[in-house]
Amino acid sequence: MDYDEVSNRDRSVVAKQLDRDPIGLVGIGYRCKFGFPAVLVTKPLIIRPDGDFEVFPTLFWLTCPKRATEIAHLESGGFIKKLERKLKNEPKLRARYREAEKSYLKAQHELLTPEEETFINHHGLQGALSRGIGGIESDLNVKCLHLHVAHELVTENPLGNVVIKRLELEDCPEDDVICEGLIA
Fold first, then answer.
1. pTM score over 0.90
2. Per-domain residue ranges for the chain?
3. 3-state secondary structure at position 180
4. Which residues fall within 8 angstroms of residue 24, CB to CB, at 6 or more apart?
5. Residue-level pLDDT at 28
6. Which of 74, 131, 145, 146 lies at a 20 to 30 A Cα distance from 104?
7. What is the per-residue pLDDT across 64-118, written as a single tens digit (0 to 9) for each?
8. Measured between alpha carbons, how far is 138 from 36 in angstroms, rounded to an integer?
């Protein structure tokens, strides 16, 4: 999987986009046309120095403030249930979604080091990283539209594609680039 290295400027912008430092940041999976981080690539497993750990199934994390806000409005309007009905009633969409899940899980495992794989096996965590996009266990349920849009922006996700088309999601207008205001 390809992604951009994270610069100090990226770290600063992302921290402001999220109002906190990101967890397990590996790289920038997608940038808007203005060069700002819009999707992060994150580690699937965080092992802390004290031996504590966190499984983090959000491989692609949407940080673009404009897109995130628009998607949140769509979610609050009940679009997740509509998308779940679409998945249930459209076998071709469901099959494409299953392929996207396979690709997602493969990319997730490619980010694990041999030491992390050993840790996972030792702690019996294999199941935690063998679920679908964002850790959801059923291909008929949708956890979060943001996850699917982020995945679509980095590679391919048919549900993310439906959302992008529905909202006509685009970058900020040139005279109102939200992330320009985040640069210190």
1. yes
2. 8-175
3. helix
4. 42, 43, 44, 45, 46, 56
5. 98
6. 74
7. 999 999 999 999 999 999 999 999 999 999 999 999 999 998 999 999 999 999 9
8. 33
